[in-house]
Amino acid sequence: MPLRMTHALEQCDDWVTVSGTQKRRQRSCKVCALLRTNTKKKPFVTTFFCERCSIDDTKCWLCNKIRRYYKGVEKTCFEIWHDDFEGGQAIPRN
How many structural domains comprise the chain? Predict the structure, then answer.
């Protein structure tokens, strides 16, 4: 695997059959899970991850769609993770 110098979203190539149809396996978005206010509501799911932020087989799953406002600005979870959370080094407590 080549060394990654920049952070970029990659789409997972893991497939599952649902009701006879091949679909990409979806995982919970890390930022959506951290920022959800209603614990009964599930976080959004995604098929994208940041390879550079992933450790070994543990992928850093992040939404690639603008789904929320963060600090008054519309952002993707990928942008929030890298710009505001500093790649996981500055995750807010609440």
Answer: 1
Q: Output the CA angle 55-86-89, nearest 5 degrees.
A: 60
In a domain, 52, yes or no: yes
Q: What is the pTM of this model?
A: 0.84
Of the candidates 68, 72, 18, which has an alpha carbon nearest to the alpha carbon of residue 44? 68
At residue 67, the 3 state secondary structure works out as strand
Domain-located, residue 55: yes
| Model pLDDT for residues 39-91, shown as the tens digit of each residue | 788 888 999 999 999 988 899 999 999 988 899 999 999 999 999 999 999 99
- The residue type at 6: T
Determine the Cα–Cα distance for residues 46 and 24; give it in Å rounded to an integer.
9
In this structure, what DSSP letter does residue 85 have? S
